[in-house]
Amino acid sequence: MARPDKADAVAEIADKFRSSNAAVLTEYRGLTVKQVKTLRRSLGDNAQYAVVKNTLTKIAANEAGITQLDDQFTGPTAVAFVTGDPVESAKALRDFAKENPALIIKGGVLDGKALSADEIKKLADLESREVLLAKLAGALKAKPSQAAALFQALPSKLVRTVDALREKKAEQGGAGTPAPAEDAAAE
Question: Where does the record place Low complexity bias (predicted)?
Fold first, then answer.
């Protein structure tokens, strides 16, 4: 029979898995308490970094419907439960791991899909959500202005073409060529 404190811990971890956008599993062996504290600060409000017991976390992940991470619960494990932008959290973890090679990113899960350590690093290489949205807005704004310029260019080009044809006809035919209105009146 499970002890109440372990059952509570499993329920708490399962709730964290359910309420987060992503979760990144790391191995923290060799990091000092000060370094872990620095990592937690670098994650900010976007994520909560928790050192966890493998067996309890594996049970909690399975209860939350995440079975893809079962083989990654080996060795000392800590989980970054991401509630904000997953890209920013992945960047913070990647940057911290560059400065502190003892931190090893094992893998994770994003919106129910398992991610390898390499995929998390690729996620970290993306631009932030705000930058991507700004680029999208700029692209959407550019398309209507390009269309408006095109629609304005067509009538002005038509007018210039008609003027050029009139000048050419006037040079070729001169005054002896009747205007179209005079042809209609003569008939």
Answer: 177-187
